[in-house]
Amino acid sequence: MPTPIKQFPRLVLALFCILALALYLLWQALLNAEQEQARARLQLEADALAHQIQTRFEQQAATLVRLAERWPQHRESRDLWTANAAQLLRDDDNLQAIEWLDASFRMRWIEPLRGNEAAIGLTYKPTHPNYPFLLAARDSGQPRLSNSFELVQGGLGLAYYIPLHRISGDVRRFDGFLLGIFRVEVLINDLLSELRAADRSLRFEENGKALYRAESDDQAAPWSVSSPVTLADNSNFVLVMRPTDQLLASTTTQLPLMVVISGALAALLLCISLMLAGRGAQRSQQLARSNHQLQAEIKRRQETEETLQHNQARLKLIHDMTDHSHDALFILGLEPLEVVYLNRTCWQSLGYSEAELREILRIAPNDIMPGAITWLKELSSMIHSQGDAIYQKRVTRRDGQTRPLEVSVRHLRRLGRDYLICVGRDNSEQLQLAARLQQLSHQDGLTGLFNRRYFDKTLISEWRRLRREQTPLGLLMLDVDHFKHFNDELGHQAGDDALQQVATALNSCLMREGDCVCRYGGEEFAVILPGAGASQCLQVAERIHNAIAKLNIRHPHTTVEHGRLTVSIGAASLIPQPQWSPHDLVHQADTALYQAKSGGRNRSQLSKPEESQPR
Ligand SMILES: Nc1nc2c(ncn2[C@@H]2O[C@H](COP(=O)(O)OP(=O)(O)OP(=O)(O)O)[C@@H](O)[C@H]2O)c(=O)[nH]1
């Protein structure tokens, strides 16, 4: 929805239109007032002129009436009447003729006769247009003026009928009419001669028909005024006046135009002022809005700054906490590879300052972590797997010591860049513990030799390895002779001690790397000899017999030879074949051991050739 300020130009435009309309109406009202004033003035003039026409006609009619009043004398002396009539005709140009009608309405006398001869003897019939006027004049005894009619001589005429009476004794006799014929044009010209003016158009009408026109070509006004004219009781005449431009110009003023122009200028100034005020208001509103936005922006920035400070404080706290962490935390940015962050533990644990460590990592990372360059390439590929990984690495301290480092790596993508979050931990203790556990899980508790589980695993792995190399795998199965009697006679603890001494002796007999002695179970031992053929197996067995003999452990049982503890050994050697298994080797050595026992004990027995075949 538009604001009132935005609608302001439309409101001002609407106001201007209203003012323009009001000015137009005012202008029209003023023009109408002027026109009414001009009309009233013209009406006054028309009324005055009509009155003057009537007065002038009455004056002329009065001369005829006075002539008619002398009818008794004139009736007797026609010459005198003729002379008086002629005099009257000379005085009044508008009189065409003076006539006498007798009581029977017959034309009896005309002055001047010349030109009017045709009228002598004319009798007015009831059908004559002027007949009603004759009757009216006769019956009323008052003069009457006829309507206009065509004169024999041409033009229009008016007949003024004055009834004539004569007193004869006591009798008043009607002797007809003194008839004055007026030429309309001359009569009206004469009547209007003093009043004609260039600035008026005149028309003298009889029953709507123009008898006389004095009209100017300059007739701008569409209106006219009329005033009735009554001549000798004939009220069929009307004087019509129409103003000319000149008259209108004289009666109208520039006031309406001036008022309109002044008003228009005032309205224009008012609207311009309002528009300027509106603009000002709009600008101040915009300014207020801008200020408001600015305030909001300032507030937002303050909030952002506070958040930033808060985040910085948190970041510093996190920084401090990570610096005090036992774990080394470092963040790598990829493409290009760069160290984004190192916590204090990283460089302190290695004996460097942060700048020194960064410089070494930049130019020779392998000096810190062997194989670091290859490892970093491997890490870079982690962005495709998107997975986490844990690596076991070693790092070299400034003093040259190397320490194990377990590095947990997580890939993150932020702001269009890949990062690796790496947490490193010196896990030497765990490694040692694991190694110890591993060792314990493979060690026999009594003798410290490898146990049966280790034997099984090692025999299988060596079997597979030597099968690939097609190299013989030798095995000695060894059992203490008459050990039951030993225990029975000397006690179980003495038996344990003897077993420990035997184990030590067995270990001392192994010369080659990869050879290992395991406690197979109870008083039985197994010696794995990778790469040893039959003769080599027997050599080792011989060394074992000698070593056991050197122990010189007294055996209490009477049937034992020399009264010393001895062992029997079964030896076997095979080049591993796909169709054989490690159990075949164990079985052969075991069988040979059984044979050694059967053969009298304290001896070695090599697996016989037929026993070298797989089962
Ligand atoms: N003290 C002790 N004795 C053990 C241990 N393991 C097995 N023995 C004993 O070893 C003896 C083995 O006896 P036998 O299997 O009958 O065999 P032998 O008496 O050695 O006779 P030959 O093997 O035929 O010579 C048993 O009496 C077991 O109790 C051990 O860890 N300590």
From TrEMBL:
The keyword Iron does not apply. PROSITE patterns: CHASE (PS50839), GGDEF (PS50887). Keywords: Membrane, Transmembrane, Transmembrane helix. One of its GO terms (cellular component) is plasma membrane. One of its GO terms (molecular function) is diguanylate cyclase activity. Pfam families: CHASE, GGDEF. It is an enzyme of class 2 (transferase). It catalyses: 2 GTP = 3',3'-c-di-GMP + 2 diphosphate. Residues 471-609 form the GGDEF domain. Its EC number is 2.7.7.65. This is diguanylate cyclase.
